[in-house]
Amino acid sequence: MEHLLQQIEEYKKEIAAFSGADEKTIEEFRIKWLGTKGLVKTIMGEMKNVPNEKKKEFGQILNEFKQFTEAKYEELKASLNSELRTKNSELDLSLPGDPMPLGSRHPISLMTNRIISIFQRLGFAVAEGPEIEDDWHNFTALNLPEHHPARDMQDTFYVQQNPDWLLRTHTSNIQIREMKKGKLPIRIICPGRVYRNETVSARSHCFFHQVEGLYIDENVSFADLKQTLYFFAKEMYGHDVKIRFRPSYFPFTEPSAEMDISCMLCKGEGCNVCKKTGWLEILGSGMVHPNVLSNCGIDSNKYTGFAFGMGIERPALLKYGINDIRLFSENDIRFLKQFTSAV
Ligand code: DAH
User: Fold this and answer.
1) pTM of whole model > 0.85?
2) 244 CA distance to ligand 1 centroid (A)?
3) Residue 42 to residue 29: CA distance in whole angstroms
4) Whole-angstrom Cα distance, residue 66 to residue 62?
5) Where are the domains positioned within the chain?
6) Fold of the CATH domain 107-336
7) How far is the CA of 46 from the centre of ligand 1 (A)?
8) pLDDT digit string (tens) for 131-149?
9) From atom 2 of ligand 1, which residue's Cα is the shortest distance away?
10) Ligand 1 atom nearest 288 alpha carbon
11) Beta-sheet strand order (sheet of 304-311)
12) Is 171 in the pocket of ligand 1 (CB under 6 A)?
């Protein structure tokens, strides 16, 4: 039996070394090894000379040999096929691809999304509201009754056909609409475009963007407001940013505060951007005025809340080093495509 084993080993070596590349030699390989008179058949025939007690062991060896030969044959066929395919195809895989022009997000959207994602991590949901608003939602409900002098703080565009309609001057109208729905608690962040009748220049525009925040529940305190805005400022401007609150006035909040952050350009030393103060004003905030709650049908003895509002253009100007607010709305593709990979 020894010679049989030896024979098989030699055959295996011969098969492994075979490297016929064309159809003809591969067919010759098949006939020589796997054909009806091929060597595999012949050596299988040796089984009848194997003594009974060795039949099982040998049977296995022979089977393995057969599989080995068949696998080699399949491999040869496959390599021939793939060679044929590349030879015959029109496709040249080595050619450089056609560039696919990718759009880019607008820097205002990038900044808005960034602000939203920070508040979402604190459980704030996004809410939106109409840009064409009525006087009540934009002013009266926010504790700015008719003839209130604070209405002059915002130069309003009115809709000619109906003087009760206007282009919202701030995103605070969304607060009112959400509170009116009566589902408490409320924890929302509200991005949107707002309009004011201002002369267009490098620093101001007749429309811009804001994000409003509102949190109403039982026992919401000024400490909650501060902690929320601290978290926001650190996430947004980095952990070594300094923060300060200044008392302020808004008709819809009492008490009210504005939040400043240390100027990131001069690190608080004083530069042109922070007008030599070392601080940048970034948002207005306060505890929702009880009148506003009751205007929306919320029991101000049971519920309290805080609100805040911030512009989006200014942080975007600072972040991307842009010096003219008008660039945001000119749709100059050379400007816009610079933000392709910005986050
Ligand atoms: N609505 C204010 C504005 O447009 C911003 C603002 C200030 C919103 C304080 C608020 C707030 O919700 O509490 O200037």
Assistant:
1) no
2) 17
3) 15
4) 6
5) 2-88, 107-336
6) BirA Bifunctional Protein; domain 2 (3.30.930)
7) 96
8) 999 999 999 999 998 888 7
9) 309
10) 13
11) 125-126, 186-195, 207-217, 304-311, 279-288, 253-262, 243-250
12) no
